[in-house]
Amino acid sequence: MIRKIRFATFPLASLLFLPADAWAATARPPNIVLILADDLGVNDLGCYGRKDHRTPNLDRLASEGLRFTSAYAASSVCSPSRAALLTGRHPARLHLTTFLPGRPDKPSQKLLHPQIRQELPLEERTLAEALRDGGYVSACVGKWHLGGANYGPQQQGFDTAFAGHANTTPSATEGGKGEYELTARAEEFVAAHRDQPFFLYLAHNNPHIPLAARADLVEQNRGAFNPLYAAVVETLDDSVGRLLARLDSLGLRDNTIVIFTSDNGGLHVPEGREDPPTHNTPFRAGKGFIYEGGLRVPLIIRWPGRIQPGKAESEPVVNTDLMPTLLELVRISQPTGLDGSSFAGLVTGGSHKGRRAFFWHIPHYTNQGGRPAGAVREADWKLVENYEDGRVELFNLAKDPSEANDLAAREPARAAAMRRDLAAWRASVGAQENSANPDFDPSLHTRLYVDVDVSRLAPALKAAEMTPGLASWRKGMDSAVKPPDSRK
What we know:
Structural class: alpha/beta
Number of strands: 16
CATH architecture of the domain at 28-355: 3-Layer(aba) Sandwich
CATH superfamily of the domain at 28-355: Alkaline Phosphatase, subunit A
Helix content: 25-40%
CATH class of the domain at 28-355: Alpha Beta
Largest sheet: 8 strands, mixed
Radius of gyration: 21 Å
Shape: globular
Strand order of the largest sheet: 6-5-7-1-8-9-2-10
Strand content: 5-15%
CATH topology of the domain at 28-355: Alkaline Phosphatase, subunit A
Order of helices and strands: EHEEHHEHEEHEHHEHEEEHHEEEEHEHH
């Protein structure tokens, strides 16, 4: 049996809050604007401590709302994280545990990948569908990456959808991936539906590689770890600021819940033509890894008059929790069978039950160097199980957020108990397992995954200084795991 673990709660002051049923007497329930960045690291914003990035609009949003300091994604790559966000169900249960369409099996991999779903199943009830049935009109603007024809946003509950037209060349003058075009469509949607409850899901393509930004912004950010990436982040921030200003001009600010988050951690290794875009210091690794740098994400929620501004919340939450949380906040019934739990009490300063354990299952090799693994967090303890050989690592995140000191040998009973919990959870959700690779090449595996452990890669002063030393590893990794379709 999986042990129920309770986390400490941190109730917010309620002096600024209206009564819980106050909005029910108004003309309409609150709007929801959910903004999702792509590969934005947990510490890429000024409000999360980043000194070499300029993010005034998101910093202001954090000062006006609630900033979570232990927010997690359900996966360290995009498609499974997005599926979890929109369904409140774990990627392992959905059998959608890596990016679509997935990667081919190669001799460098000791294990074969499980065969994942190639789309978000239509039978899954999404946040858009639940809100539609509650009287909301909805739009998906930007990246979907949860299925192709017949599995798009409008088959999953959204009334309208606009994917955009990304320009990923170095000559891009708008910011790289059409941020302002997406923002303009988002502004059009909220203006058109200002007189009815709406749900806007704005999923930006940035700061995912390839990177492109205006030359003047790159020059202005020349002191950053990666000036190009910093310029891309600044462009993203500016586009968010434009949408927030539009909400203000339409008089929608006070009756709109705004959520900003990312689909996974920041990319900390060179990939494609790019130097390492960012680092997730003090957290270990980044996108594609089951360590904290790959799983932790920024999460900011603003609801004027209902959320006390300028607060930081340290209780762990995961993006599967957003669907039940938002449905509770707008008083719409939750679907049965959700893996996420509402943290509405944390948002509004009300009561909040103690937390369960948090689980991850990523049975895949990634283009960033990650290997198949699972993890569980219980209170301050996190156990990582490596599926290749069954080896476990145990960390006390309160004392060691960098996951530098493996305590499994010192705490064998705790490690064994948490490993049992992880196995029981996998069985309970029907998680897919790996199988042995009959074409396994141990020497190639050693060269790519053992001789170079990029999960422990320390950032240099500048990203460009890191790329030459990793060139051989990057070339080998690309030849070993690069899929026919290079979307990630």
